Amino acid sequence: MDEAITNIDDVSRRDEKSPLLSRSLRKLTAASSRYLTQLDVLKTQTKNDDELAAIELVADNANEIIEAGKKLPAASADEGQKKKKP
Fold first, then answer.
1. Is residue 81 classed as helix, strand or coil in its secondary structure?
2. N or C: which terminus of the chain has fewer CB atoms within 10 Å of its end residue's CB?
3. Cβ pair 36, 62 in contact under 8 A
4. Which among 14, 41, 31, 20 is positioned nearest to 65, based on CA atoms?
């Protein structure tokens, strides 16, 4: 998840208006939602404080991604479709 965040940040610094940014963030938001479900299960199963701290850190990152994803404008009709190469 950290690598995906870093890659999206790098692209946004180079080309702020890239349509791939919103598409990537939407996919990362969806994945983060799925991770949160799994992390909640792991939280209840772990007894180790270090593991619990790591799980909470990842959950915080996932929540931040989800909040950022909520700020995106609505997806355009052609955003979800792959473009064919000429």
1. coil
2. C
3. yes
4. 31
CA–CA separation, 17 vs 37, rounded Å?
32
Find where tokens 């701290």 sit: 53
DSSP secondary structure letter of residue 71: T
**Segment 19-25 long-range contacts (CB within 8 Å, at least 24 positions apart):** 19/79, 22/72, 22/73, 22/75, 22/79, 23/79, 23/80, 25/65, 25/68, 25/69, 25/72
Alpha-carbon separation of residue 64 from 17, 29, 67, 81 (angstroms) = 21, 9, 5, 27
Two tokens at 83? 């473009």
